[in-house]
# Entry
Amino acid sequence: MSTDQKSKINLVVNSESKPYWEGAAKGQLLIRACDACGKVHHYPRTICPHCFSDDTAFVEASGNGVIYSYSVTRQAKPPYVIAYVKLDEGVSMLTNIVDCEIDKIRIGQKVRVKFSEAGDGYALPVFTCA
Amino acid sequence: MGINGKSYIVGIYEHPCRAALDKTLPQLHAEIAKGALADAGLSKDDVDAYFCAGDAPGLGPINMIEYMGLNNVRHMDSTETGGSSYIVHVSHAAQAIAAGHCNVALITLAGRPVADAKEGKPVRYYNQQAPDFPFEMPYGPNVTNMYAMCAMRHMYEYGTTSEQLAWIKVAASHHAQHNEHARLRDVVTVEDVVNSPMIADPLHRLDCCVITDGGGGVVMVSPEVAKSLKRTRVKVLGAGEAPKHLAAGQVDLTYSGARWSGPKAFAEAGVTPTDIKYASIYDSFTITVLETLEDLGFCKKGEGGKFVSDGNLISGVGKLPFNTDGGGLCNNHPGNRGGMTKVLEAVRQLRGEAHPKVQVRNCDIALAHGTGGLLGSRMGSATVILGSEDA
# Structure
């Protein structure tokens, strides 16, 4: 883990994560839902971490959420905002808050997903002030 | 079958170096083993169990057992929970001794991040096959910002302030001034902390622990072996360990795994937080201490800020003397793993061998707690409660 520089985006694409990145490239924020117990989870897994069923599938999230917590990494050039965003669907995800005035970011603020180019035709879900 | 009273810590050693440019990693482990065994009055051939974590180079414990010539090992354990590993090891060694699997257990930790950086060695990268890696690493998580988000949320929910967090560093610095080996010995004020550069909001530079080389070791034995030794023995009374993580997306950053490891340790020891005369609390950052104190029940959830203020953690001043060696915030955080030094200072306090300026009077029951990994995502928490012979 780098301490003073945001790591260059280098997506790990494997059999579990590939559909997630492909969805992001199409402008969809995907979360994983379990048909057996009806619950959603994040990060996505093949086997449901709630009930251990393998009857899981990606579903599209609304892309809306609120900032649960955040921090500004001041020593990075340029500084960046890391955050947990709680999605309207009830799960929280680690992400970045972009294209907002950094010093005005607050917990509880409504945010909306957007997608940043991540190379090889994939995209990375990030959030901006709604 | 519990572990209460079934094993003793009889030897400890903290390596005095804080930058190990002239020493290899295996050499540090061996020097530490030698120091801890000498403190106990035992030899390497007495050792029949060896414990180490991911900092030990090689295949689990095997290479270090070979390097040190530990020829009588019949029990080994390389449980890895980051910086809390060594507190888990104390618990596991106590279990193994209680079960009759061994009589003399050696635990070592060593690291040389300062020397490695100077030598241009690559930082050890997090395993790309970790399931969370693909979904988190692109966002630039690092140690500081992942703890900072906990502080930010704690402030939001409970009104905790930067000044309150600063008191934790102030207390550590009051203790470190008396430790000749401490990396930072200057006493600092709340103003010094909050005016130090912002690293990751809301954590300032002085909210962060030091980075040091070195390490430490512990020797634990059965009651029979303990009685044969001259050294003041410290009894293991109880222990608990617990993982805490993001719970499939139900994220709550306001507490640590101490919420679960603590009660197990207290129950096994048959004591409560009010019985604890001294506490070693993992202090990678000030927020780590604050959340842990709440989770262990030293104060109510959300009241940690008030609890740590006005010198309440300073020995001789406050109600709960903590990290009297200066802790990770000022003294030593060898190999970026602070669990071992937490055990060492608790043992010094129970032996009455802490620095006279910070020694807690009538210290008969002490606690050591570790948080390994990241408070802001996933961690291994471990608590051990130790006592004097009469405890």
Observations:
- Chain A touches chain B through 51 residues (CB under 8 Å).
- Chain A has one helix and eight strands.
